[in-house]
Amino acid sequence: MSANDDLKQSASETMTKHEMIIHYIQKLPIGTRISVRAIAKELQVSEGTAYKAFKDAETAGLVSTKERIGTVRIDRKRREAMDQLTFREVAEIVDGRLHGGLAGIEKTLQKFVIGAMELDAMLRYIGESSLLIVGNRKNVHRKALEHGAGILLTGGFEPEREVIELSNELKLPVLSTRHDTFTVASMINRAMYDRLIRRKIILLEDIVTFTKPADVMYVGQTVAEYHALFRETGSARFPVLDERGRVVGMMTAKDAAGAEDSVSVDKVMSKHPITAAPNITVTSAVHTMALEGIDLLPIVDRHRKLMAVVTRQEVLDAMRFAGKQPESGETFEELIWTGFVLHSEVVPDDASMVYSGKITPQMSGALGMASEGLLSTLMGQAARNMIRETSKRDFLLDNVNTYFLHPIPIESEITIMAKPLELSRMVTKIEISIHDNKGLAAKAILAAQMIDPY
């Protein structure tokens, strides 16, 4: 019996076919090219079953499927390397074709170099973890690989056979694209810049430990066992799982109150509990937990199988950490707010904060006036800055009612006044108004949930 036969036999005894495929994929070396048909044949399962398992493996970060590259076994990317693009991602960005070096497709690149200089000068800039963007300069391709750099050929050119063979030997990707060099450099630079911004967005999977077992209960356990687990852990809220590990309920002190010790927890538990996927943002989790008044959120996969749990304190700590990090790139909102300054010395009696700035040509809409979306964004930014300045807190927007009284021409100097109508630990209501030289131009009433201070 072969090793694969042993794997299939031992796995089938304890796993479903779906789980057996996932386990098989996990054992494959990073960089292995795989297909639904081949694995279905290897493990003697239907292609439909293999396809569903492939989709789950892709969601879990075990494989990646890209046009012109195929499905490849990958390593789940570390959060600290999130700002680094892989060669696979570059291929996707530029609609590229992979010619060789598949084993290195998941390597990250630190920089890219445009091959528009003499060879000797170029070689001083390239090295390991770099990408050379170059046209049909055949004398450069081999030298770049020998210096540890991947290659991206622009203008629709393709590499020679000896270059492809060398790339496979050195495990360095060689890509090609129909785009010109300037377009390709702009596309990659934009992607790297966006990645810097995205690094500040924390997901639930970034703050939980999936290998740490959660305290749970199972269908069939009793209220007496709930009380014992309560005393042992000090926690009063536990996910209830069925025999397949799926979250089917939540057991709390309120559910156990008044119930006989011998009663099964599935008879008194809260059914259809709120759960979350691992790839949702921490901000979204905070909003859900605050809105529903819960302190523990189960994290589940697409089949509702428990992966981990996260507490409200953990997500609030993560948001505080994110708020203390230096800015990495600028979002559109931050770019729009650039140039607006606080004028605390001119704050009238009926406003908490006054900001002033100028409507630039880039802020205009279709009619040559300040766009309504732009004005709404400015009012939202003013409200957020006021909360941050006065209470060192932030908020999650519930709703906003906006009114536009007259159009504001470009080049106009405006002031934005933000006044708190209600400000408590849980909620806030803020009145924001925009004034130009003609008087009141726009007004909004914003209602939001407050979140803990940074």
UniProtKB/TrEMBL annotation:
<dbReference type="InterPro" id="IPR036390">
    <property type="entry name" value="WH_DNA-bd_sf"/>
</dbReference>
<feature type="domain" description="CBS">
    <location>
        <begin position="210"/>
        <end position="267"/>
    </location>
</feature>
<dbReference type="InterPro" id="IPR028979">
    <property type="entry name" value="Ser_kin/Pase_Hpr-like_N_sf"/>
</dbReference>
<dbReference type="Pfam" id="PF07085">
    <property type="entry name" value="DRTGG"/>
</dbReference>
<dbReference type="InterPro" id="IPR029069">
    <property type="entry name" value="HotDog_dom_sf"/>
</dbReference>
<dbReference type="InterPro" id="IPR036388">
    <property type="entry name" value="WH-like_DNA-bd_sf"/>
</dbReference>
<keyword id="KW-0129">CBS domain</keyword>
<protein>
    <submittedName>
        <fullName>DRTGG domain-containing protein</fullName>
    </submittedName>
</protein>
<dbReference type="InterPro" id="IPR010766">
    <property type="entry name" value="DRTGG"/>
</dbReference>
<dbReference type="InterPro" id="IPR046342">
    <property type="entry name" value="CBS_dom_sf"/>
</dbReference>
<dbReference type="InterPro" id="IPR000644">
    <property type="entry name" value="CBS_dom"/>
</dbReference>
<dbReference type="Pfam" id="PF00571">
    <property type="entry name" value="CBS"/>
</dbReference>
<feature type="domain" description="CBS">
    <location>
        <begin position="269"/>
        <end position="327"/>
    </location>
</feature>
<dbReference type="InterPro" id="IPR051257">
    <property type="entry name" value="Diverse_CBS-Domain"/>
</dbReference>
